[in-house]
């Protein structure tokens, strides 16, 4: 819990950019969600008429500029500024006229704005392909240097893990299970991942349970009977000892090479 | 009789002048009965010479008042702006964003009045009582509402920037608007967060941007009319210009980023304005912008009168991890190698502490601040880190520390000339960066980042001469986003991530006092004296808290 809190706090610090991770991302332009059918029609019309000069993805081509970074396009809302350029052309720049209908212009505008939106929503860019490693090397790492087999078994807790999760989720879970979210875990798995704490008060009595909160001035836990206990802290009094069962995953972040990460991913996805 | 009256009249006139606005002389000496500019003074060190609150009485520090700031079109507010009408008591629909209702600004305190902001909102509050004097609300057209760093002041006039990229000037006495001027195009996803810095008759105005690959700039504007005096671009304007050899083509330069989203610092003797620039664009892949990409991720020294670049130091050549260099360039006058030097220190988002000679930008020392950092091949002869190309985003991902939020970020550091230590809060994080845009001309970020773990956050005291961490305090649940203040009372104030405001001994990190607030400290703490009483003021969430010691 404490580590998860730490992470989220660190993410909030990402001042200029929206928070890290997937599923984040916001934009100040207030983009509407464009009708996929209109985007599709607009793309077809654009590629056939405009793609030769502006590129099929509208990012610029042999003779036409990048329209996704065009100030005129950015200032447009629904074709009202793009339309006149399409209909009248730009003779001075060698752009011919195109006799599109208002509906077609609106579709082309939807295609262009959707492209701008896609680049802008950087919290949700789709990951392309992370299964590039060598599964054999991953297996050797799992049973060797990585010491994964000291806690996990491919015939036991990890049986069928490659069918249970898609590769991106699976990689997130082994890099840092707590960060990846424990929601998908069964109750026993969640309990096993909890940070445990022992608080020893000066009288000699001690309290143990799952850590609920820890800062420099307070510590709180829930014991095995479900009772909540909190203590004020002053320096080392009371004595607070924590045990994070996922500490090994955190420590591995300083040890993995990128190849280890890729190979381990490739191995785990084979565990169908 | 006349002879006797004249001097009195003269004194009264002088008093009236002082009472009417900000005396510019206040800006050039350490603040005691005022906090007249974003960092307290031009140096950015956030050190106060006040010692009425000190180690012997800090344990008696108590709450003087709380002011809760309600953003939006509240009853009695003065309303301006170019956006759609906002119903009374409402906030604009376009104003959504994580920083809309958080005090990230450091209030100015001038003549007993505090002036502070949230995005689209400015308040004047009595610094003795916490009572509101006026509120100004700006109807926004949109823009990313992530935060606002506060106001600048010139005489009776205030200046602030809006998420939809206007510079707005208010009358500090009434909160009424004098004028507003558009400084950038919100539709290009510029959004403006800095506190303007006033130097003589120059209002320094910067801006921010994100994923639409726009160029950064810094402007100087006339305090009376808002007219543009000069504009400095973060990239060369065309091939052949100095710096253009670090870009492949004009297109990459004109879409190269380099935002000026935090206030800079100023040396009156050298007449130089120092500011850190933002990351290059596209943000997380460098395929279409081969080269060092000047002057992104750089500390630059600009002539205040002309805006001409005098020197630069690039902290992250060819950055691909969003590690802008916007963090405060802190001015240090002290010794280096037993010689008195005019220096500049910056704790950078990329994980290094840089120490420069601020007369010429030459590097004196470069030191890693966090132990987990893994992206650099070392330091070159100029003191610049050498990025490891293998740690640039790939399709299948690379594991990088720190994450894109950086080892540190906008919360203000502090330099205490009495301990000789530089204080900064760091985060020890890991992310995997995945390349997502394989086009030869990627746009926006071009890659996505996934946070995978953190060793938490740490308050560090660093010897600027050696770069060595002299003491550190590891936060049990990670660092917050609080700035740091040090004082001659031998106190260091900052906040944690569990809603505490904490006083430390700056010599050794011992905790001396704390108070639980209603939210995490969200700005840089400040201090001032009024009526022989010292106050400590801090923003936490939507509220300002003032503490004092009864003497």
Give short descriptive properties of this protein.
heterodimer; A: 272 residues; Cytochrome Bc1 Complex, Chain D, domain 2; SH3 type barrels; elongated; B: 551 residues; five-stranded mixed sheet; 2 helices; 37 strands; 4% helix; disordered N terminus
- Sheet bearing the most strands of chain A, described? 5 strands, antiparallel
- Unreliable stretches of chain A: 1-28
Mean pLDDT over the residues of chain A: 86
Q: What's the CATH class label of chain B? A: Mainly Beta
Tell me the fraction of residues in β-strands of chain B, as a range. Answer: 35-45%
**SSE order of chain A, as H and E?**
HHHHHHHHHHHEEEEEHH
- Tell me the CATH architecture of chain B: 8 Propeller
Helix/strand class of chain B = mainly beta
Count of beta strands of chain A? 5
Number of domains of chain A: 3
What is the straight-line distance between the termini of chain A? 31 Å
Written description of the protein model:
The complex is a heterodimer of chains A (272) and B (551). With 272 residues, chain A is α+β, with helices and mostly antiparallel strands. Chain A contains 13 helices and five strands. In chain A, strands 4-3-2-1-5 form a five-stranded antiparallel beta sheet, with no helix packed on it. In chain A, helix 2 (36-49) crosses helix 6. Mean pLDDT of chain B is 94; it is low at 1-19. In chain B, strand 10 and strand 11 form a beta hairpin. By secondary structure, chain B is mainly beta. Chain B is globular. Classes of the chains: A alpha+beta (272), B mainly beta (551). Chains A and B meet through helix 1, helix 4, helix 6, helix 9 and helix 13 of A and strand 28, strand 29 and strand 34 of B.
List the helices and strands and how they pair.
The complex is a heterodimer of chains A (272) and B (551).
Chain A: H1 2-12, H2 36-49, H3 51-54, H4 71-75, H5 82-88, H6 102-120, H7 135-143, H8 161-164, H9 167-175, H10 177-180, H11 187-192, E1 196-200, E2 206-214, E3 218-222, E4 228-232, E5 239-243, H12 247-252, H13 258-268
Antiparallel strand pairs in A: 1-2, 1-5, 2-3, 3-4
Chain B: H1 2-20, E1 47-48, E2 62-68, E3 78-80, E4 108-110, E5 113-118, E6 121-126, E7 132-138, E8 152-154, E9 157-161, E10 166-171, E11 177-182, E12 197-199, E13 202-206, E14 217-221, E15 228-233, H2 250-254, E16 265-267, E17 272-276, E18 298-303, E19 309-314, E20 330-336, E21 339-347, E22 352-357, E23 363-368, E24 376-379, E25 385-387, E26 398-400, E27 414-416, E28 421-435, E29 447-463, E30 469-475, E31 485-487, E32 491-495, E33 500-504, E34 511-516, E35 526-530, E36 533-540, E37 543-548
Parallel strand pairs in B: 1-31, 3-7
Antiparallel strand pairs in B: 2-37, 4-5, 5-6, 6-7, 8-9, 9-10, 10-11, 12-13, 13-14, 14-15, 16-17, 17-18, 18-19, 20-21, 21-22, 22-23, 24-25, 26-28, 27-28, 28-29, 29-30, 31-32, 32-33, 33-34, 35-36, 36-37
